[in-house]
Amino acid sequence: MSDESLAERIETWMVGQMPIIQMHGGTSVVREADPETGEVVVELGGGCAGCGVSNVTAENIRRDLITDFEAVTDVTVRVPSSGDQGASTVEGGRGGELRHETDASNHF
User: Fold this and answer.
1) Considering its fold, how many domains does the chain have in total?
2) Which of 1-5, 40-44, 65-69 has the lowest mean pLDDT?
3) Which domain holds residue 33?
4) Ranges for the NIF system FeS cluster assembly NifU C-terminal domain (predicted)?
5) Please, which pLDDT band fits residue 3 given cuts at 50, 70 and 90?
6) Rounded Cα distance, 65 and 43, in Å
């Protein structure tokens, strides 16, 4: 097995599989990736805030992570419902800290 953590492998996957997020001014960050429980939490920000297709993107991320990573069994993708922004971005649209409006599992 690789020395990379599950979170790092998912971040690398996001860069390669979801470039559309960055191309549209969005950001993404893996908040949790627990190889023991299989739970992953990804947050979208930036241009994803209020985007009409962000729910489709979120569903694609959920489905593909479960399909592509044997260790992943449950994925939550939080999508901003308003102008929340990631603090800074790096390669592939990875985001910084996002501010939560609510604790709902799919929107903040």
Assistant:
1) 1
2) 1-5
3) 6-93
4) 19-75
5) low
6) 14
Gap between the Cα atoms of 95 and 101, Å rounded = 17
Task: Tell whether 61 is covered by a domain.
Answer: yes
Residue 52 within any structural domain of the chain: yes
- Please tell me the distance from the alpha carbon of residue 97 to that of residue 55, in angstroms, as a whole number: 20
Q: Residue 55: exposed, middle, or buried by beta-carbon count in 10 A (0-12, 13-18, 19+)?
A: middle
Other beta carbons within 10 angstroms of residue 72's beta carbon come to 22
For the four alpha carbons of 34, 71, 39 and 2, in that order, the dihedral sign comes to positive
pLDDT of residue 72: 97
Q: Which two tokens stand for residue 107?
A: 């929107």
In a domain, 101, yes or no: no
CATH of the domain at 83: 3.30.300.130
Q: Is there a domain that residue 88 lies in?
A: yes
Query: Which residue reads 């694609």 in tokens?
Result: 60
Q: Using an 8 Å Cβ cutoff, are 90 and 108 in contact?
A: no
